[in-house]
Amino acid sequence: MKVTIGDLRRLLESELPDPTLILIEGQVRVVSAADDDNRSGAIEVTTQAELRSRLSGGPEPGDGELEAVAATLNTMIVERGA
Q1: Which of 4, 7, 36, 81 sits 20 to 30 Å CA-CA off 19?
Q2: Is-contact 14 28, C-beta < 8 A?
Q3: What is the pLDDT of residue 69?
Q4: Where would I find the beta strands (DSSP E) of the chain?
């Protein structure tokens, strides 16, 4: 499973406390950092705060910018062996 622009937008728009993008059982999900029940066996991909720090800071990140971040995150996932 790959991280998509849609996944990153869901993370940015999430109102969960400390939203985190995880990879679990081949699926990318947005969960609260405190939600241990949904994180067992998961790989943490990035948090909302980390994602915002990677972006240019504009009001609405463009698809190109999100695509570049998604590619970087997908490379990190592969390097972790997921």
Answers
A1: 81
A2: no
A3: 97
A4: 19-24, 27-32, 43-47
